[in-house]
Amino acid sequence: MLLTIIRRLLQTVLVVLVMSALVFAGLYLVGDPVAMLASPEATDAQRALIRQSLGLHLPLWHQYFIFLGKAALLDFGNSFLTGEPAMRLILERMPATLELATLAMLSSMLIGVPLGIYAGLKPHTIKARSIMTGSVLGFSLPNFWVGLMLIMLFAVMLGWFPAGGRGTVQWVGPVQLSIFNWDGLQSLILPAATIAVAKCALIIRVTRAATRECLPQDYIKYARAKGLSDGRVLGVHLLKNILIPIVTIGGLEYGQVIAFAVVTETVFSWPGMGKLLIDSIITLDRPVVVAYLMLTVVFLALLNLVVDIAYTILDPRVRLGGGA
């Protein structure tokens, strides 16, 4: 197993290298940073000096190797707007995105798994069909539209929650979190619910499919033949086996929420990494965009590796090498 983990680590490194090349190539689609840093009255000589200070006068391959060397040290340069290190700006915004994604995925799991199991156990009942209809609806609605409707209902009409912002934050160790005080939690509920709608719908469908697949299996029939209670059969034998696809999908979706919560953070003015990315793209703040993209690539690659290992632990029949 150690060899297969090492093999997967090498594959992860290869993925990161390929993605770094794509990110570097995509930099030139963002825009020319000289156009932003130089004043409109700047002369050609001044523009050339700025270009030289940024290393843009070097051959493309040379720029890429410099980029790789600095990326290995988490040095992506300083923000064009604030002058602060780009990675520091990203890390300052990361706790806001992490707590948003964590609350959204926990809510999705706590709601979606029981509903999915029920829909799988009693697929022909009105409740089960209503659950599946709701999951289709939740999966189909645009994320930004859900957010706007939640703001309209719960913030504007009822006034239960704030329409945007992060609320009051407090220090928990080295990071600032809003979830541990009522004002911050109120600000967190609507954006987390916006994300949770689609994720819960997905978890319901995955759980229902896994439940329907496991029910006819021999180990379920044998457990019932032994006279075990329904609670033990479902809570131990069924749940243990349906956790495999749930953990796989849930882990990957958690990474996706962290990496791509851009729309939700923009709608709710949530000061996370996604909101910072949008602001940086608009202002052509290239170092921040690059730092965000590379951090996302590494995070998703490592998360995929962790999910693979967890899958193998949950189901010993599966091997990381692909054999069963």
Explain what the structure shows:
With 324 residues, the protein is mainly alpha-helical. It has a domain of 194 residues: MetI-like fold (Orthogonal Bundle). It is 74% helix and 2% strand. It contains 13 helices and 2 strands. The chain has a two-stranded antiparallel ribbon with strand order 1-2. A hairpin with a 2-residue loop joins β1 and β2. It is globular and about 85 Å long.
Supply database-style keywords:
disordered C terminus; mainly alpha; 2 strands; MetI-like fold; globular; 13 helices
How far do the termini sit from each other?
13 Å
Radius of gyration: 24 Å
Stretches where pLDDT falls below 50 for ≥5 residues?
320-324
Q: How many distinct beta strands? A: 2
How many helices? 13
SSE run: HHHHHHHEEHHHHHH
State the gist of this model.
The protein is mainly alpha-helical.
Secondary structure topology:
Blueprint: H1 2-30, H2 33-37, H3 44-53, H4 60-72, H5 86-121, H6 126-140, H7 143-157, E1 170-172, E2 175-177, H8 182-214, H9 218-225, H10 230-259, H11 262-267, H12 273-282, H13 286-314
Helix pairs in contact: 1-13, 5-6, 5-8, 5-10, 5-13, 6-8, 7-8, 8-10, 9-10, 10-13, 12-13
